[in-house]
Amino acid sequence: MTAGAPDAHAKTLKPRETRIFYVDPLKERSMPFANFKFPEGLVDAACKEEIIHRTTAMFVEYFGERVRPYTMVLVEEVADGGWGRADETLTLAKMGRAPNPK
């Protein structure tokens, strides 16, 4: 493929085929799921609770009230230095951040 040329596969896709990764929880009986990962010590319990409530509300707004009992929100803390971006290990110190007191 040459630079600027369209991808040959993209030409063959029909509009309906672009939605193959969409799962409607009302039809498939699957549960909406969100997974948030934060550096350890950056978010406190109140912040985690707010993330859970707001994410659940977003799913309910999008899919309807019927998904509330099936919505799963996981807020995880990753050990400092246990994550990275662009081939660089990140720490709170490198980001100029101090962990929140527990």
Automatic annotation (TrEMBL):
<dbReference type="InterPro" id="IPR014347">
    <property type="entry name" value="Tautomerase/MIF_sf"/>
</dbReference>
<keyword id="KW-0413">Isomerase</keyword>
<dbReference type="InterPro" id="IPR004370">
    <property type="entry name" value="4-OT-like_dom"/>
</dbReference>
<protein>
    <submittedName>
        <fullName>4-oxalocrotonate tautomerase</fullName>
    </submittedName>
</protein>
<dbReference type="GO" id="GO:0016853">
    <property type="term" value="F:isomerase activity"/>
</dbReference>
<dbReference type="Pfam" id="PF01361">
    <property type="entry name" value="Tautomerase"/>
</dbReference>
<feature type="domain" description="4-oxalocrotonate tautomerase-like">
    <location>
        <begin position="32"/>
        <end position="91"/>
    </location>
</feature>
